[in-house]
Amino acid sequence: MSENTVDYHPMWERLGIDLEAHDALLGAIPQMYADAYLTQSARPGGMAYFDFVISEIHGLRIKELVDHKAAGGTVIGTFCLYVPEEIIRALGGLCVGLCAGAEWAYDEAERYLPRTTCALIKSAMGFKLGRVCPYAESADLVVGETTCDGKKKAYELLAEMCPVYVMELPQMKRAADRALWRGEIDRLVTKLEEVSGRTLDVQALKAATREVNDKRRALQRLNAARAARPAPISGRDALLAVQVAFYDDVPRFTQMVNAIADELEQRAADGVGVAPAESPRVLITGTPMSIPNWKVHTLVEQAGAVVVGEELCTGSRYYEQLVDESPDTLDGMLDAITDKYLDIDCACFTPNAARTDDVLRMARDLHADGIIHQALQFCAPYQIEATSLERAAKDAGYPVLRIDTDYSAEDLGQLSTRVEAFLEVLQ
Ligand code: BJ8
After folding, report:
1. How many Cα atoms occupy the beta-carbon half-sphere of 347 within 13 Å?
2. Which of 28-32, 283-287, 294-298, 393-397 has the lowest mean pLDDT?
3. Which of 2, 63, 253, 264 is least surrounded, with the fewest CB atoms within 10 Å of its CB?
4. Atom nearest to 147 CA in ligand 1
């Protein structure tokens, strides 16, 4: 990509975007980004790519999506990790994450949703009702999933505004649940074949699997480098890389992240970091953080700590497991996809002890001094699971801070006091 000064308004207008509201939204991002990101020192040079991506967040990538559709491809919107990107890509689709990380058109959203709905759902609905998200407006289909009750019911309302297909995700991981999920994968293939007008074949699925695995492998490398002391990259920058992974061009993203991983490995070897070696190291776990939700990372790092890992859907849950690339039949590949996706440990499952194991393993491997559990208010699965997770983490010797928050700035003062007190404990 290269710097450009294209006026994207005609493209947005053709997509049905509310131009005035959208200008207001886009006008707010540069300052938010500057405050959270451009104030950092000793950033890896490779992060310039992400600066550019954010500067073009509704521009160049949307143009790529529009061009892809004009060439006969599809754009498929998703709200959750359980929707397999490999199948979408193998059928000529581009997968875009639609979760929103900013308060928008809440007044309108609350005409549909109770006030006690998590910020992630409320803002996604606000973006759709306010017609300010060109990713949502580009999508030929939104694939939802039966995870939490809030999302499940919100998809019924979203279906009044755009084409929505919902996968039934089991809530346990027994053999019968795996069989149900395998059937859901088959049904998704049928639906996507219908939308794309193509037929899934094994070679295309293997190629797409390799591409998406390569993206995950690049993120694994970037994140493994964070075990170094001093940390060679900030938590904010590592979080941003995963946030962008949800909608960027896959091969380009992989190449850029691998270049950053090269840089971080060199920094680690040279002892170069983004914060002093003795800075407290924090692992963050909980609900996903979508762009531009950089709230907790920014608070923690501006208070003098460094975030060394995220057990989040915008973190390790996104890149840790790979799909087995070895099967040579379509059934074998779909089995491998079934297993990989059922292996994600979301709090919507019960029991979900494997998530706690992941948190403790990451805290150990990344040399964390403490753990912050961040949950969006009104997210019952994560807020409730925080109780057992906190107990296990404390038993393992890690101080834990629990934060329940939203996308507003109202609690910043109070959170900052609590974070500072927590970091004192870690010193
Ligand atoms: S795999 S975490 S992306 S469901 S925060 S909407 S759970 S009330 S986002 Fe999620 Fe998939 Fe799980 Fe990940 Fe509901 Fe909670 Fe809101 Fe949530």
Report:
1. 26
2. 28-32
3. 2
4. 4
Residue 402 · residue 385 · CB < 8 Å: no
pLDDT of residue 2: 44
d(CA 294, CA 236): 7
Instruction: Give me the helices (H) in 303-379, please.
Output: 316-319, 330-342, 353-365
| Residue-level pLDDT at 337 | 98
Protein residue closest via CA to atom 3 of ligand 1 = 80
User: How much is the pLDDT for 1?
Assistant: 43
φ, ψ dihedrals at 141, nearest 5°: -155, 145
Q: What pTM value is reported for the model?
A: 0.97
Nearest CA residue ID for atom 10, ligand 1: 80
Give the pLDDT of residue 427.
Answer: 86
Query: Measuring from atom 14 of ligand 1, which residue has the nearest CA?
Result: 148
Q: Can the peptide bond before residue 381 be classed as cis, meaning omega within 30 degrees of 0?
A: no
Best probe residue, ligand 1, of 79, 151, 171, 358 (max atoms within 8 Å of C-beta)? 151
Strand partners, 283: 309, 371
Query: Edge to edge, what strands does the sheet with 141-145 contain?
Result: 93-97, 74-78, 141-145, 164-167
5 pLDDT band, cuts 50/70/90, is confident
pLDDT digits (tens, 9 = 90+) for 134-155: 999 999 999 999 999 999 999 9
289/237 Cα distance (integer angstroms): 13
Query: Is the predicted pLDDT of residue 4 greater than 70, yes or no?
Result: no
HSE, CB side, 13 Å, CA atoms: give it for residue 177: 12
The response to whether residue 291 sits with its C-beta less than 6 Å from ligand 1 reads: no
* Residue 382 CB–ligand 1 contact under 6 Å: yes
Q: List the residue whose alpha carbon is closest to atom 4 of ligand 1.
A: 147
Q: How far apart are CA 127 and CA 161, in angstroms?
A: 12
Q: What are phi and psi of 30, to 5 degrees?
A: -55, -40
Ligand 1 lined by 381 (C-beta under 6 Å): yes
Does position 3 have pLDDT exceeding 80, yes or no? no
